[in-house]
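[recover] target loaded
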């Protein structure tokens, strides 16, 4: 008796961009590797068109990865669960797919991020531990929910709509099934209020920074780099993608530049391949001096210096994986969490358990808008509009709550 399709873990389909090459040749190889796909007429054409769409994003590894994740999930669901191809999809299918993503089967869910394929070019092997969905375990082993957040749902709809529009232009589809969902409101909530920015408390950041400084003191060979990275993420609001080398840029020490007034700046290539100049504070300059001294370099960079901004600990060259930065930061979070619990700060520790790397950027911006002109913060953060920066200003919420704090349930006569 054959197993139900949702009780079997699917094999990864789409490799990293540099290993794909020709969509046609790659699709043929994949069909041979996964025989059950050959039994589904149309799966081959689905894969060729999907690969053609994805390879157009060869200028941004982050965009490619996020689009690949959503498209591969949809293809796996179509082929293995519904036994249909993209040309068969309608509005109800997309709604069913969204419900599937909200509660994927256990066989489709892993407990950690894993690479789809391993090995050198020509010898790539499919991972046996990769899963389309990931549910992270907390410190005591409980698995968190895989249900998509509102932000993730918005991303799913946006990616799939762009994807289906491409397939329309290629005359592969006749309709965009996402566009037929008139009432996305049953999936996407509309808020009459501004969502609060997810950030660390000042106490949590103090514990994290003290923990990282202690690690740097005890194991400088490894954690002087960690301390530098943590300060970059907080002190200059950098995204982790802005610290690693990819197709867009390879951050180097020479990106720190001094102007004619003696002020230091960091040139950063951010979202949309846009370059910006970020102010470097006196404290950040001290951090830079400390890190460079540890590396055996002159205290400050020179014009055109090509030393990687964040170098590998083993081997040569820059860090190229955001995952490595993410693990580095998460390890500091976990150690700080343990220290807080041992000091009896259970509630603060509980909140830190759900923190992500991006919270460092949020926290740095939230603190700075309290005393810096928001226009300056916006330029440093690389926000596309002032409305984004305004989200970090919580003065109105404080005043609103203060005015209501002493309301009486039973008004005095």
């Amino acid at each position: 008796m054959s197993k139900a399709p949702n009780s079997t873990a699917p094999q990864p389909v789409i490799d990293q961009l540099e290993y794909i090459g020709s969509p046609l040749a790659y699709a043929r190889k994949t069909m041979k590797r996964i025989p059950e796909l050959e039994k589904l007429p149309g799966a081959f054409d689905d894969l060729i068109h999907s690969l053609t769409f994805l390879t157009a994003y060869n200028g941004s590894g982050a965009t490619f990865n996020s689009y690949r994740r959503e498209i591969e999930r949809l293809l796996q669901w179509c082929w293995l669960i519904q036994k249909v191809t993209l040309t068969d999809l309608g509005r109800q299918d997309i709604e069913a797919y969204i419900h599937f993503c909200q509660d994927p089967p256990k066989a489709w869910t892993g407990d950690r991020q894993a690479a789809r394929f391993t090995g050198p070019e020509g010898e790539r092997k499919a991972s046996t531990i990769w899963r389309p969905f990931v549910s992270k375990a907390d410190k005591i082993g409980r698995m968190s929910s895989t249900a998509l957040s509102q932000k993730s749902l918005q991303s799913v709809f946006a990616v799939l709509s762009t994807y289906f529009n491409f397939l329309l232009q290629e005359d592969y589809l006749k309709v965009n099934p996402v566009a037929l969902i008139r009432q996305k409101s049953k999936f996407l909530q509309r808020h009459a209020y501004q969502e609060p920015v997810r950030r660390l408390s000042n106490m949590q950041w103090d514990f994290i920074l003290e923990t990282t400084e202690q690690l740097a003191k005890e194991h400088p060979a490894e954690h002087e780099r960690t301390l530098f990275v943590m300060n970059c993420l907080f002190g200059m609001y950098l995204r982790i993608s802005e610290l690693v080398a990819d197709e867009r840029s390879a951050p180097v020490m020479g990106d720190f530049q001094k102007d004619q007034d003696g002020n230091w700046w960091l040139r950063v290539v951010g979202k949309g391949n846009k370059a910006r100049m970020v102010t470097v504070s006196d404290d950040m300059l001290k951090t830079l001096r400390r890190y460079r001294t540890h590396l055996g370099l002159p205290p400050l960079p020179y014009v055109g210096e090509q030393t990687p901004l964040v170098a590998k600990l083993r081997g040569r060259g820059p860090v190229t994986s955001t995952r490595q930065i993410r693990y580095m930061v998460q390890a500091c979070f976990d150690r700080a969490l343990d220290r807080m619990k041992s000091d009896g700060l259970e509630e603060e520790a509980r909140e830190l358990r759900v923190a992500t790397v991006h919270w460092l950027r949020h926290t740095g911006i939230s603190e700075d808008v309290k005393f810096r002109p928001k226009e300056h913060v916006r330029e440093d953060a690389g926000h596309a509009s002032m409305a984004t920066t305004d989200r970090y200003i919580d003065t109105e919420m404080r005043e609103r709550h203060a005015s209501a704090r002493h309301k009486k349930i039973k008004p005095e006569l």
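[recover] notes: Residues 260 and 303 are 13 Å apart (CA to CA).
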